[in-house]
Amino acid sequence: MPDETISDEALPDENLPSRQRQIEEFIFIKIPHVLAGTLFLIAVVLNFTNVIGRYVFGMPVFWAEETLTFLVIWIVFLVAGSITYRGAHLNMDLVYSRMPSILKRVVNIAILLALIVCTTFTAVQSWKVVALHYRNHGVTAGTDIPLVIPHSALLFGFSFMALAAIVRFRSYVAGKFD
Length: 178
What we know:
- By secondary structure, this protein is mostly helical.
- The chain has helices spanning 18-55, 64-86, 101-136, 148-167, 169-174.
């Protein structure tokens, strides 16, 4: 049985000018990965410092646990947009792979629309939570870190995912990512 792929030469993003693609990859892949890597390195150093302080000197870094949690949240939501841009979300394709190409296109469009609607809805709700914490000057109990900081990660992450899906609209419809 020949491989049924969705064929539409004008559809995939691979026809974009290379300069535009380079800019997109810089925004959606390189910047988030560098920032996430930097935050991860900070988290490792902080965790190592906390372990040494706790077990060698008997003086743990009291704010380390909470800060590490917020760093991990930011790391996850920074790279979520990259995953969306690359179309690398987990999927179950046992049934999908056996569908005719026109049905694949319908499923791809449904996935894209659901992705954009859900991430946009969640970003709007996150905005409301961030605004609430900003107005109320909400801070964490242990370290007085403003709650706007961790909640902004969700706002950023879901907005970034929606934007990535919109930018890669053609790839999502075609089901082809390079």
